[in-house]
Design brief:
TIM Barrel; 14 helices; globular
Length: 317
């Protein structure tokens, strides 16, 4: 009888009390039950994992993480945040792993903290949430982070955060009051994070760091569906092979997008080796995700890759 594959979930969030206390009220994201669930990184979280059949969660600090602080405060907060996360992982080493929170307002400080957490604490990479004080992460001032990630052979997970206020004012404010999800998982998160991914390809960062690995959640923020059209458009001036660059450097996860058509599109564009299981807990319930994976229209080999095989290779687990 075949051994049941491990289930590793990559985009699973928690909160840090010190960071939360320093955030402006508008930046504290999530309804009360979700916030309460994020505060627990021990018994209740493990119980919920057991009930859903999730073997390992890779924990990441919830948005906006350290991306909205000034450089000095971000650098000062980061070691404590990551050390506390390390302690939570050490308490349940067979059930929890970690992505680092990086003080991106100080790019060198962020690169140094990435190296510390990977080499000293055993972290599996890092997660960056949205804009850093209004700036996209592809700007060359942030490239030391990607240089260090390539040298350490760990991925950077680009995760959504709230859209820039100017974007909200121009595009979403007419509907934000009655339909607040337009700012978040309903649309705004997708646009912000897909744009970050596109800009990474256009920036030339993958030419500078050809072994750099980037992860996008939510089955690629819609980009797999658009890859052919985007590649055709960007290829007109011959400056970039967008489809190849995306396919060579990006991994995507199933977080919060348990859709067979979207999954099949992603597999057809990127291949099953580039897709990893995630839930987006506690913003999304775990049980629907694991139940969905039981019946996805793929062969058992590809299902096992998505559930854990790809994560074991990418994150060296």
């Amino acid at each position: 009888m075949a051994r049941k594959p491990r289930v590793i979930a990559l985009e699973e969030h928690y909160t840090d009390a010190e960071v939360t206390s320093q955030l402006a009220p508008a930046d504290r994201f999530g309804p009360p039950p979700v916030i309460k669930a994020m505060e627990d990184v021990a018994e209740q979280r493990i119980k919920a994992m057991d009930e859903a059949g999730v073997d390992v969660q890779v924990l990441s600090l919830s948005a906006p993480s350290l991306q909205k602080f000034d450089p000095e405060k971000a650098v000062a907060l980061a070691p404590g945040v990551n050390d506390r996360l390390h302690a939570a992982v050490r308490a349940h080493p067979d059930r929890l792993a970690a992505f680092a929170a990086l003080p991106t307002p100080d790019p060198k400080g962020a690169a140094d903290e990435l190296e510390r957490t990977v080499t000293k604490l055993g972290f599996k990479g890092a997660m960056i949430h949205g804009l850093t004080n209004g700036e996209f992460i592809d700007l060359k001032k942030y490239w030391p982070i990607f240089e260090r990630a390539e040298a350490l052979d760990v991925p950077i997970y680009l995760h959504p955060s709230m859209p820039d206020p100017s974007v909200i004012d121009r595009y979403y404010k007419d509907y934000a009051k009655d339909f607040p999800a337009i700012l978040t998982a309903g649309w705004g998160f997708t646009v912000e994070t897909a744009t970050a991914g596109i800009r990474m390809v256009l920036s030339g960062v993958f030419d500078a760091y050809p072994n750099l690995k980037i992860v996008l959640g939510h089955l690629g923020e819609g980009l797999p569906f658009l890859l052919w059209r985007m590649d055709q458009a960007f290829s007109r001036d011959g400056k970039v092979n967008f489809r190849k660059a995306f396919s060579d450097h990006f991994y995507i996860t199933t977080s919060g997008n348990f859709s067979n058509p979207a999954l099949l599109c992603s597999v057809m564009e990127l291949g099953a080796d580039r897709i990893l299981f995630s839930v987006d807990y506690p913003f999304v319930d775990q049980k629907p995700g694991t139940r969905w994976m039981e019946g996805i229209p793929l062969c058992e080999e590809d299902r096992v890759k998505i559930l854990s095989g790809n994560a074991e290779k990418l994150l060296k687990m």
